[in-house]
Amino acid sequence: MRTAVVTVVHGRHAHLARQLAGLAAQTRPADDHVVVAMGDAGVAAVVGDRARVVDLPAGPRLPLAGARNAGAAVAVAAGAQLLVFLDVDCIPGPTLVERYAAAAQDGVLDSGPVSYLPPADDYDLATLPTLADPHPARPAPPDGEVVPATDHRLFWSLSFSVTAPTWAALGGFCEEYAGYGGEDTDFAETAHAAGVPLRWVGGAAAFHQHHPVSRPPVEHLDDVLVNGAVFARRWGWWPMQGWLTAFEERGLVRRAGDGWVAA
Description:
Layout: E1 3-9, H1 13-24, E2 32-38, H2 43-47, E3 52-56, H3 64-77, E4 82-86, E5 90-92, H4 96-103, E6 109-111, E7 114-116, E8 146-148, E9 159-163, H5 164-170, H6 183-193, E10 198-201, E11 206-208, H7 221-235, H8 241-249, E12 253-256, E13 259-262
Parallel strand pairs: 1-2, 1-4, 2-3, 6-10, 7-11
Antiparallel strand pairs: 4-9, 5-11, 6-9, 8-10, 12-13
């Protein structure tokens, strides 16, 4: 099965370089790697000849959904039968591509465990597995096991795979979303509505490199409200409830009927 990794990026050049190193060390290398540069002309110099770069214009609100769709389109046009989406912050464990490829089948959505790494100036690929500490809210099956999920809301776009026919059937990510939040939850809800189950793939481990974050993400407040409203219109409920509640506690948002607005 011809497999392509798709990564979207704006900045994070050091993180991208480590991801490229991790992909070069795979037990089963990917057949293709498509890197979508969202308004970032410097990405090509980081990638060199290790992947194909797709340039996508970007405004203040990054087109994350559109970038993933653009990367997938290029990969499928080049013959990809399996798409592995990997966030630029993620370094793949050595068996990530192999395990996704072994588990692949039409009509399912697969995701591997992701561990958050501590702050560091650099990371040693050889010792990353010793730092494995998967997200506590999501299953992390043993290597070689594939476990059906019980809640599509646990899906995240940091690391997942889907066959090209299933991707086409789902229609990719909804491009009404831009900027932070909502588009991955929407994609999972689309899969759920279409009867496409989510599974957790043991051994398809990825390691999320540290970067500063705000909790709650106040710099993304406008994106959360705009994207949340798009999601609520499409699905009838608001995502990112934890962030919205935290914003409300700080007096930054307020309830308005069934939705939320800036305070």
